[in-house]
Amino acid sequence: MGRYVIRRVLQFIPTVLGTMFLLHYLTSLGIQLTGNPVRALFGDRTPTPAMMAALSERLNLNDPCLTQTGNPCIGLFGERLVNIAQWDFGISLTGQREVTDIIGAALPYTIRIALIGFVFEAFVGILAGVLAGLRSGGFLDYFVKISTTLIIAVPIFVLGIVIREFVAVKFGNQLRADPNFPEIISRGFLAAGYKPDYPWASLFIPGLVLGATSLAVTARLTRTSMVENVRADYVRTARAKGLMPRRITGVHTLRNSLIPVVTSLGVDLGVLMGGAVVTETIFNVPGIGRVAAQSARTGDASVVIGIVTLAALIFLVANLLVDILYAVLDPRIRYE
Amino acid sequence: MSDLIPSATSDEPALQSSSSEGAGATGGTASLWSDARKQLIRNPIFVISSLYILVVSSMALFPGLWTDQDPRNCIISQSRKPPQDGHPFGFNILGCDYYSHAIYGAQPSLSIAIGATVGIVLIGGTLGLLAGFYGGWVDTIISRVVDIFLSLPFLLGALVFLTVVKVQNILTITMVLVILGWTTIARVMRGAVLSAKNLDYVLAARSLGAGNLRIMLRHILPNAIAPVTVLATIALGSFVAAEATLTFLGVGLQPPEESWGIMITDHQVYFLEAPWLLIFPTTLLIGTVLSFILMGDALRDALDPKMR
């Protein structure tokens, strides 16, 4: 086990460097293709060369390699790595604030909404998958199959808008008009946006929307895995030994079926962080996703880069932990 | 899974082995593909989905067939008028005919989806083929690069590139979808090639003196193409959805361009007063995405001999 962990951690280092380089190259290529992002700050006015130079220097955008299309800018990449190691993600173009400050203020909201989405996804997804997989070909199986296909086909922003307008605004307004109704439900759970008075309740619906797509994926994966294991030899053996059906399902089938699901759940963290950009924009949650989308719209490249770098790092670490957990659950992996 | 393409709708391992089994069973009678064709024609879901895609494609290719109105000919006094005679979808917030918007909106979505899919099949297919066929250090390098691309959540990577590039048109959006989307195809292709490369017929071809290139293109590729076709079909749907999502975030296509994503984004707050402004574009969008996904699922079942 120890050797596996060491090997996995050693593999982790080039992946992190590679991902950081990929991000760096995407950014540099963008700048090389269309020019200095500082100009976006001035709108249709033309800044004086001195102003441009001063701002570019301050934001570390004055490297000559940023004018040569295709140049990988290795030197700049080195500087950026050192900065990230010192927890310095640069400063925002517009507000002149430290990007780490901006992220620090917004991150708690994103963690909360992602947590709600994750719990929803894991519980309901696995439950639906298990129920569908136990009676493959039955009514529940078809129901899960059809509803998950629909959820996957509906883009998350469409789902979010429809739920916000129908449930939070229309239905919520009716309940809010009734003074006898408990406020925690009408103004908390059914709020159309984030409400500081209800820091968890008002993130409930956005969290469900965030977890919806991953829920469908989890349910399908659990179902496939269950269907495979229900027919496995060791399950037949367990049944032949005369074990209780509950024990066969719970201990023999379910535990083995959940191994691939655990991996998928870990990887879903990346999906949740990407989805947070959309969900937080729809429901006006002041998390890092909404900040990233707003900054993208105003052209504040350094905030977007900082947030995405951090998200990618979180995602990589989560993947590493999941891989180690996978080896704990499945001994075959350790001795590969 | 941070891949753009929801491959969890699949049972990939089954599919990969199937392509090789299909090859083994070919034996002079019906081929894998002609069997699949027969099964698909009898599958109502596949037929309906293909018809829907046909309709949407004709909107994209020949919008003039569907409407003679100019989507940019707007009268502001008509703003948000409900559907009426001659204007079946009503008018949008700027008083433009909404039906012609919906028709012209098909084109950017589909061109981005098709361009990006061709791109990922070419890049991902080639790299997957090389990695699976040569193995060794070629495989190590390509697989590591795939890992790296997969550790960047798709939406976040696209957000960064499109923010920095600032020019958000069909070309740049297609580019970012290809850059971040080729990995899924490469993985599946690699797996399919790995399972096909040591089969008897490949060894036979080699013992007859066939070169690497010939073995790859004539013997391995035709049998590895099935899972890639399935994934590419599903990818078309994912890209239509991705384009609309990027537009919603403000880094996709921009007005006055017509696209379903723009139509949904611009009218989201009028849902309760003027629901048709949201219902028409979302129906078209979801129908397209759903059709591609269902077509992919049907193709997967038809190409898997075990399912018969």
What is the makeup of the main sheet of chain B? none
Number of strands of chain A: 0
Query: CATH H level of chain B: which superfamily?
Result: MetI-like
Secondary-structure element sequence of chain B?
HHHHHHHHHHHHH
Q: What pattern of helices and strands is seen along the backbone of chain A?
A: HHHHHHHHHHHHH
Q: What gross morphology of chain B would you assign? A: elongated
What is Rg of chain A?
Answer: 24 Å
> How many structural domains can be distinguished in the coordinates of chain A?
2
Globally, the shape of chain A reads flat
CATH architecture descriptor text of the largest domain in chain A? Orthogonal Bundle
Describe it for me?
The complex is a heterodimer of chains A (336) and B (308). Chain A is mainly α and 336 residues long. Helix content of chain A is 75%, strand content 0%. Chain B is elongated, with a radius of gyration of 22 Å. Chain B is 70% helix and 0% strand. In chain B, helix 12 (260-267) packs across helix 13. With 308 residues, chain B is mainly α. Chain B contains 13 helices and no strands. Classes of the chains: A mainly alpha (336), B mainly alpha (308). The interface between A and B is large, with 64 and 49 residues. Chain B: Its main location: membrane. Chain B: It is a multi-pass membrane protein. Chain B: It holds the Pfam family BPD_transp_1.
